[in-house]
Design a protein that fits this description.
One of its GO terms (molecular function) is DNA binding. The protein is an alpha+beta fold and 228 residues long. It contains ten helices and seven strands. The protein has two domains: 64 residues, Winged helix-like DNA-binding domain superfamily/Winged helix DNA-binding domain (Arc Repressor Mutant, subunit A), CATH 1.10.10; 139 residues, Beta-Lactamase (2-Layer Sandwich).
Length: 228
């Protein structure tokens, strides 16, 4: 993908995460300097739409990111984002003390997500923040509500199965929509990190809407990978 095209795609995703509203060429022109006029930005947006990175609900509407766009975006965020050296004191202390109830609660509050901690050695799952998930999602249909409820009910078993095999080069991955191994709702995204504590191996997950603040979540999770 050409650099300018990626810059425009990145801006669309960032703006949608920031505002929750469809993004137009005029809006991008007003906030970003791509070195081109609105008509050229509009042409780039159409090419990104044709390539499956953006979606347009109707002809005169702005664009919203597709799952393909989010996945492309978060891969770049993982590459660029450094660990957050300043998690809250409660997060730091509970991590060092291996108090996973307090840790999951503090993490959920800090990130505004449903957070899950799997203590692999103890085969125990801790989760907090369902209210964050309920508050932040767009409920378009009763079936979507039912799917999120089913996901929550099945979360312990799915996370345990996932944690046993979660090993990759970076120890951190992001799953968008139905690509997630622990949720089935198309509205959700999952950030997962593998890390070590003094008490053993952990898998930490942040579950939230696809328009979550990925930089904050990934930076926070990377800080735990540097602690163990």
């Amino acid at each position: 993908m050409p650099d300018r095209t990626f810059e425009i795609l990145e801006a669309v995703v960032a703006e949608f995460i920031r505002t929750g509203e469809a993004v137009s060429s005029a809006g991008l022109f007003g906030r970003y300097d791509f070195g081109i006029r609105p008509a050229m930005i509009r042409s780039e947006l159409q090419e990104l739409t044709d390539a499956g990175f953006l979606e347009q609900l109707y002809h005169s509407a702005g664009r919203v990111p597709s799952d393909k766009a989010y996945q492309f975006f978060v891969e770049k965020v993982i590459e660029r984002t450094k660990s957050d050296a300043h998690p809250t004191e409660k997060i730091r202390i509970s991590f060092r003390n291996a108090d996973w109830n307090d840790f999951s609660e503090a993490l959920a509050s800090h990130l505004g997500l449903l957070c899950v901690v799997d203590d692999v050695r103890e085969e125990a799952v801790y989760k907090e923040g369902l209210d964050n998930l309920v508050r932040r999602l767009d409920w378009d249909s009763p079936e979507e509500i039912k799917q999120v409820i089913r996901d929550f009910e099945e979360l312990d078993n799915r996370v345990s199965d996932f944690a046993k095999g979660f090993v990759n080069e970076d120890g951190l991955d992001v799953f968008i929509g139905r690509r997630s191994p622990v949720t089935k709702s198309g509205q959700l995204a999952v950030v997962a990190a593998n890390c070590e504590s003094d008490d053993g191996n952990l898998v930490i997950l942040g579950i939230g809407p696809k328009w979550m603040d990925y930089k904050k979540v990934i930076g926070t999770f990377k800080s735990f990978q540097n602690v163990g």
